[in-house]
Amino acid sequence: MSKPQVNRASVSDLRQSIDTAQHLTKAGVAFICVPYFNEVQKQVAAGIAHKNISSVELDTGTV
Fold first, then answer.
1. Interacting residues of 36 by C-beta distance below 8 A, sequence separation 6+
2. Could you tell me if 57 and 27 are in contact, meaning their C-beta atoms sit under 8 angstroms apart?
3. C-alpha dihedral over 45, 47, 33, 37, to 10 degrees?
4. 6-62: pLDDT as tens digits
5. End-to-end CA distance of the chain, in Å?
6. Cα distance between residue 24 and residue 7, in whole Å
7. Cβ proximity of 31 and 24 under 8 Å
8. d(CA 35, CA 7)
9. Concatenated DSSP letters for 7-48?
10. Nearest-angstrom CA–CA distance, 55 and 29
11. Which domain of life is it from (predicted)?
């Protein structure tokens, strides 16, 4: 079995990921880092994350 080809993230993508992780942490959301090796894996992981986040009712502080 061969290893997958690694696509390196850009510096701006890494910074955006760190920023998002910090915002989630401050909001009290537990999360895990999920590595991916190609665009298909990225889209699957993003879809799962979106579904999980969309299923939560957020308190925006408005009345």
1. 42, 44, 45
2. no
3. 30
4. 778 889 988 998 998 898 889 888 878 888 888 898 899 999 988 988 887 766 666
5. 56
6. 25
7. yes
8. 11
9. PPPPHHHHHHHHHHHHHHHHTT--------SSHHHHHHHHHH
10. 13
11. Bacteria
Lookup result for tokens 């998002």: 20
Which residue bears the tokens 């989630």?
Answer: 24
CB within 8 Å of 33: residues ≥ 6 apart:
21
Q: Tell me the residue type at 47.
A: G
Residues whose CB falls within 8 Å of the CB of residue 49, separated by 6 or more in sequence, listed in order: 34
What separation in angstroms does the CA of 47 have from each of 2, 13, 25, 26, 55?
Answer: 26, 17, 20, 22, 12
